[in-house]
Amino acid sequence: MAVSKVKVISIIGVLKALDEVVKICGKSEVFHPESVLSFYSNVENFLPIPGISPYKEPLKKLKSVISKTNIKLEMVKDRDFEVNKKEVNDYVDYFCTKLEDYLNTKEKIIEKIHNQKNSLNDISHFIGLDLNLSEIFACRYIKVRFGKLPKESYLKLSVYKDDPYMLFFPCTSDEEFCWGVYFAPLENISDIDMKFSSLYFERLWINETDGTPESKWDYLKESIEQEEVKLAEIEKKIENFWKSQKDQCMRFYTKLEEMSSAKVASAE
């Protein structure tokens, strides 16, 4: 690419006309702004424009919300697109508020699905125990602990054969752990908890619920399916919202980038 000659041009005017002058220079596509403080050696009588560009904050807000999605902002050419500060702020507020509402709803649904899947995995280890969970949790004088023991620890339970409360009822197992439950009277539970803790028992917190582990599993499975439908619906809403706003958003984004990079400090 050939090197083009450039000319240094100084523009003098009133501060309230700065925005309009910057817009005109930018549209011409032949101006490259430079800070006078770094361009001239003698800048004793020069002062920078006071204040911060009013376009930086809405630009930052727009980018922040967009960063939470897979949307990619791109600058577009539209010479006829003219907006003032109020129009910029109004649109960015509208767009960001609407999109954030959708994203917050989506995040809550995803978190709920994640928690329910964890609960589903936990309760799956106790399917087969002939227990009514609501009745167990309703006991006033007996405490119950659901959890897992390393297989090595499970074999060591024989050490406590003389303790009538050191009884572990296994339900499922794999190569490393045995999942099950133990019970103890209220006045003995602290001591029993300490003994099982020394055997590396990991407690799983099963939420209070009616019915058996099987009914709890069925309930969670159905609930997860319902939340996944809601997730698909909110993702569709986000997709449709972006389709309806894409062109306008890109125009505002382009304008914000141009005015912010030009370091405009509007006096409007």
Order of helices and strands: HHHHHEHEEHEH
**Global shape:** elongated
Question: Mean pLDDT, nearest integer?
Answer: 85
Q: What spatial order of strands do you see in the largest sheet?
A: 2-3-1-4
The biggest sheet amounts to: 4 strands, antiparallel
- DSSP strand tally: 4
CA-CA gap between termini: 41 Å
The share of residues in helices is: 40-55%
Number of helices: 8
**How much strand?**
5-15%
Structural class, by secondary structure, is alpha+beta
Global Rg: 33 Å
Which ranges are low-confidence, i.e. pLDDT below 50, for 5 or more consecutive residues?
264-268
Description:
With 268 residues, this protein is α+β, with helices and mostly antiparallel strands. The chain is 51% helix and 9% strand. The chain contains eight helices and four strands. It has a four-stranded antiparallel beta sheet. A hairpin with a 3-residue loop joins β2 and β3. The longest helix has 49 residues. The relative contact order is 0.18.
